[in-house]
Amino acid sequence: MSKNPPPPHSLEHERALIGAVLLDPARFAQAHALLGGPTAFYSDTHRHIWRAIEAVQSRGVDVDMMTVGAELRTRGVLDAAGRTEGLAKLIDDVPSVMGASNYAREVRRLASLRDGFGFLKDALREVAAIPEDPAAFFQTCATAFADLARGTVDTKRTSHGDAVDRVIARLCEEERRSGFITSGIPAFDKRTGGGYMRGVLNVVGARPSTGKSTWLGQNAIAAAMHASHAARIK
Q: CB–CB of 182/217 below 8 Å?
């Protein structure tokens, strides 16, 4: 029996975001505004850690591995959060603290997709039950999609189709502005949190005849394809 695929999420981006804030607490304010709250995290572990970071920050205490670990202990969730060893690993695995806002955008984008998919599942369940008033049901659907797209859709009622189109347009725009350019090599993109970040110099070294030119060629092709995709969704 085939299993349903997991909902959209990226544990790599979640870990990178938390690690970046632990390394550079000055990144917290912008990341927090972009994220919208700990429920944007897919992982319960990461939700625990982010709530602890919020609590430490609200008291005006320096955010670091020790203060966040102490807050997790006070809340009784230090073991669930991986203890201090888990926090240390988050810090060690950060691709770049400068990518904190981009990590937050990606975590928020995937959370929005999960919210949308959850709504669709609920809507399909209600359709299967054959609602007594189809018009009222579809109006509720339209309003729910408008709520999902809040910030790009007026608060007035809108059609279901318009709401879907605007949600998709917003997600495409966030992708275009993410600041990352794929290398064309999934393993490298995963390690760096998304590929090459605009404005950041990346140095790749290797011995002669080990494929550096091939690597560069793949990078160039991937960058060209990325630029073409961005142009299409403008």
A: no
d(CA 52, CA 69): 8
150 has which bridge partners? 153
The torsion of the CA quartet 172, 173, 178, 183, rounded to 10 degrees, works out to 50
Contact 107, 14 (CB under 8 A): yes
Residues 150, 184 share a domain? no
Grouped pLDDT means (10 residues each) for the chain, 234 residues: 70 92 91 89 92 93 90 90 85 87 90 72 56 62 59 41 50 53 74 72 77 76 58 40
Q: Over the Cα atoms of the chain, what is R_g?
A: 21
Expressed as residue numbers, the domain containing 202 is 180-232
Measured between alpha carbons, how far is 47 from 37 in angstroms, rounded to an integer?
Answer: 9
